[in-house]
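Incident review: delayed structure delivery

Summary: a single-chain prediction request sat in the queue longer than the usual turnaround. Root cause was a stuck worker, restarted by the on-call engineer. No data loss occurred. The affected request and its eventual output are reproduced below so the record is complete for anyone auditing the incident later.

Affected input:
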Amino acid sequence: MDLADALGLGDRALVSFVGAGGKKTAAGHLVTAGAARNLRVGYTTTTHTPPLDNLPLVLADPERPPWTRAGLDTHRSPLSFARERVAEPERAARKLRGYDPATLDVCFAGGTFDWLLVKADGARRRECKAPGPDEPVIPSQSTDVIVVVSVQAVGEPLAAPTVHRPERVAALAKRPVGDSLAPRDLAAVLASDEGSLRGVPAGARAHLVVNKADTPTLAETGRAVVEAVTERTDRYETTLVTALNPAGAGAGGERGCNSSEDSGHSDR
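Output delivered after worker restart:
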């Protein structure tokens, strides 16, 4: 089962990605899935992001957005788009600056893209995070919000370089900075309206992706994270334990979603 099937995506979706530990990789899997379904797929951001590999890139000012360009409404191949490149980006060779959420709401309503994929926050390539005061930046018309966390944060110190905004994670988990992270600590963030669920539109489906479960032991730990989350909230329609392979991003092949048996669609 690929990620799109596991999430139950239809032929029309505005999908926002938040969290840490595989947002860009998850988006890459959906690009591949959308292309296989012959859907028009666009990838962009409301913040800053490195571009997805193997995708054509369109740069356009919000006053002349790419979805109004002649001929783009018939464009079938996936593409990424942004307003400009970030000069001298930190922590990446290249970065793009995206659009405000209202602009992307208009883009989605215009129907140029069947699937509009939006990276809605940053994590500095760390394994887990809690949002800062101005995060996330989620378009209000999002149909789906995918919250990503890396199971490989479990057992690591609640501190950089594992955690982005460790003081916020510590406050939500009620644990001191530097303590070893347990599944319940990740769950405290993932289940909180002041944590990973902050800014999720009321009408959007929320999905939890516990990623980087690359071994049976990590998959078992991932299931423990999911169980701890679902004890705290029923907001997630889908809970998945995954081993998403970055090779699946863009047009490349994918190793698969590898969701655990007791994950998938959840009514809990």
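Verification: Confidence is low (pLDDT under 50) at residues 247-256, 258-268.
Action items: add queue-age alerting; document worker restart procedure.
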